[in-house]
Records
---
Amino acid sequence: MKRSPLQDAIAEVLRQGESLLNSLSDREYTRKLPNVFGSTVGGHYLHCFDHFHSLLQGLDADEINYDHRKRNPRIESDRNFALSETLRILRGFASMSTPYLDCPIKVRSKVNYELDAAPSIRSTVGRELMYAVAHAIHHYALIAVMCGMLEVPVPAGFGVAPSTFKYHVEQPQAA
């Protein structure tokens, strides 16, 4: 079965997460960093994971609701559990057929601080996969900063948008 570039991107981003989880100690994963509003790598990883999970759950329900995230605290606090759940989600996306990416789907998300209503809009499965990848890369950039504070190296390209990564690779080196 031929895979689409979106499916490859999802797999790549989830494998980057797997690599990150394998490079951190349990203490580094859960350490609160005062300079980053007291957040943890695990907290940011949970947030990314929840968007992927919401997306998969929404495919069965014909509506993705990004506000109804599972928010499993165990993913935030247990690095090994987060790793096993990442591999489970990776398998879930790997089984998706390429033609399914063009299927329409409703998406719901709260976008207003004052109103409780979460508007529903029409999208496609592929567009939501694209969003989940971009969202994860954004949070991976924050995680990379946190790892820098913890003096933990991150995988190459971690938290860098593919277009930015390509741009930097193609630039001539300064003498």
Note: The helical segments are 5-23, 26-30, 41-61, 73-77, 79-94, 125-150, 162-170.
---
Amino acid sequence: MVYSCNREYSVRWYLDGFSDAIVPNSLPAEQKVVAILNWMREEPSRANSVNPEALPKRDPETTLTYKQLLNVCGTATNAFLNLARSSDLRVRRLLLLSPNSQTKHVVAEVLIGGRWIVVDPTYRAIMRDARGRYLTRNELRDPAVFAEAAAAIPNYPPEYNYDQFAHVRIARLPLEGLHLRPVLDWVYPGWDEAVDWSLFLERESFFYLVLSGSAAVFFLIFRAMLAWYADSRLRIPRFHLRQNVLRAGAAFFSAPEIKQ
């Protein structure tokens, strides 16, 4: 857990420095989004990998460095989300699904003016209608509105529509996601929007931090239960680490007795 904390801290420190060089903190939210997209569009100094498939796609430092990853929808969106969070923007990932519930494209949503507007980092564009008004995912479900927005982006695939979407695709789990989505929708409607799942699922350092922290809490509780059972039920003398450390410290720092 300590290692995971240190790794997540170093990633956040790196992203803060990276975003400060791209986005001035004094800019309003809309201009911050434009600044990040401009950097993704124009920055010339990027590395190329001979084997981009071998690159760690959940490491922010990698996704911001390699040109190939910034041209793929999943990793381009991850790069945008990481920079946007470091610029104090509220953002989340949005998966566009095909009729058979497969992911066909990945975009981002940014909270601006109380509305979750859609940003497509792959095409470096904010989705907007013919009047220039920013659009939400629900507005883009209208075929006419989507056609207007897509027409303003060169070579934008018409199949990237918003007929079906999700923030978390549970179908990636074994056995068709164990049919968890209907259960979760029944138990907690809106669960997929209540938490920033993209941070947990797409940033490896944060995922391991949550995993190790949860494991540490679980085992501490489990140890306390075992200690209570040994003391109260089994009456077994236990090795008390804290008491022995205190005794050892007292013996180490106290002056020895001198016998005459």
Note: The longest strand covers residues 103-112.
---
Amino acid sequence: MTSGGSLALRFLMAARRPFIAIGAASLSIILLALAGSLFGHPPGELLAILLRGSIGSRFAIEGTLLKSVPLLLTGLSVAIAFRAGVWNIGAEGQFLAGAIAAYLAAPGGIIVAILAAMIAGAMWASIATAMRIWRNAPEVLTTILLNFIAIHLLGWCVNGPLRESAGQYPQSDIALATLPMLGATQVHAGILIAIAVCIAAWFLLYRTAEGLRLRATGFNANAARWAGVNVTAQIARAMAISGAMAGLAGGIELLGVTHRLFERFASGYGYSGIAVALLAQLHPLATLASALFFGALTTGAGELQRAANISATIVTFGQAIVILALILFGTWRLKERPHD
């Protein structure tokens, strides 16, 4: 194949990516409706309930936006790490570490609490980096194990030193700092922080030399090393940035939504971030649209549970369909990849 033909084919394949993502999302919605019909509801009725619950009112839209904030940040966390070729599956644990740190730092004010959340998330992720460098332990394994450690750490905190002063429930007292609301809405200022982080992540990856080195490391670590890139340093930086974003998500969720710690605080946001990042094809700006889609799906699933008695966990089924569809489309793309 000629160089010009190869470039043209590569351009067409890149232009097709948004349609692949839209196709995967549409397929998940269709299969969700068909699966819901097993409960005796027509697919059209279920889709109407899903839409009404996600964007059908001001209250629903605000709920979708609130759900989208942690999904956007955990999705960005996964995207940054995956771009560097690091399989960070630990956003859940980093999310919890950030929330705990934000609670402890809340007496110092919002800015201190936010910074503490980011630092805690980065440090929690860096444990996996240290294990990889020191003992060549795969980050897929260590980050998953760190998730469980963070879950038990949170449980110990809310049943022990951070338990509410009343001592009635395994939860903390209300945090001493909260994010301001945007006007007369439920939406907090964390959404502005998340959007700013999204733009910053795009700028880092595609407009800086550091981002080029990071992407080169993920594309081919051996070639990057040959070109003079310090691959180990890039992996460490990517994991720290990734952890900081997930920690920020936990801090914002605490300071803007729950205002207190409790068991099962993360609600699976760290794992959902993987689906968000994959649907966005690991592109930071596309992650914004992907997070809104999954946020709407999560909010709409709550309405399905209330109106149609269908478990809200059906959203997990939708996430699985998205990932499987992207794997299927990705396999086809590999078969069609141009060869020079």
Note: DSSP finds 14 helices and no strands in the chain.
---
Amino acid sequence: MRLRLVLAGLALAAATAGPTTAADNIKIGFITKFPVPFFATMEDAAKAYAAAHPGVEVVFGQGTSATDIEGQIALIESMVTQGVQGIALTPVDPTVASTLDKAIAAGVKVVLMDNNIPDWNGRTALATTDNYNAGKIAGEYLKSVLKSGDTLGILEGVPGVPSLDDRVNGMLEGLQGVDVNIVGRGATNCTEELGINVAQDLLTANPDLKAIYAACGPPAAGAAQAIKNAGIASDAIILVGFDFCCGEKEALEAGIEDATVAQFPAKMAELGVDALVKSIKGEKVESLIDSGAALVTKDNMAEF
């Protein structure tokens, strides 16, 4: 009888310490804003995480544009209906918070990636670039190449989106100490097309424009195209971007773009998904997870 009890105890221990069972499987949603390489890289990292962690299933969704609020709300609602235990997402706008509140009320944990939702306390964690400090990196570079009296045009992303506003405000802080004249600011919705249009307007209105700063990768590539279309020599104007994506590599190689700030989207996604999985398992996670940023120029771009 004693032997039988010992064997039964060993069997129970093996069952509880063994590999993940179907009951232990974790199903999460992964939502990104819109189709650009930055978010494709994040998706690939989430897929790699799932492949390396048996028992983790990831359901993917993506909006159509940087302003597709209704699309993201529909994706959140759909994933809750599909029975996910957690959602990792790059929020397109703070107004999705009310939909996330409903998800949390249904028992779903939420990890934000890339940007925060101000004054919203529902998130378990935020995995992101410190966009303000990353913006300062761009501003400090501009400070090193500009002088007082020079003119600067700014291609904003989506005004009102905190992470994109931080990239501009951080840049302005990094630029402090040089009295630069800001001659124009325009929203681009982080698209190349609007980047071209806003940059063309800036160049037309300011023939002696000395520098352009773009808060997203696609508008930076658009500004490079606008500079090329205008027949302006690459050494006659300074162009600084943000994201190191979506045509910026080619602009750097051509010498039209002088520098950009690289984020690490794969690391951001991996850290975000890992925090979400751990929180679902009941493990403690940090509320703020910084995935880092770095200045990229033609000289060091091979490192990125």
Note: Confidence is low (pLDDT under 50) at residues 1-23.
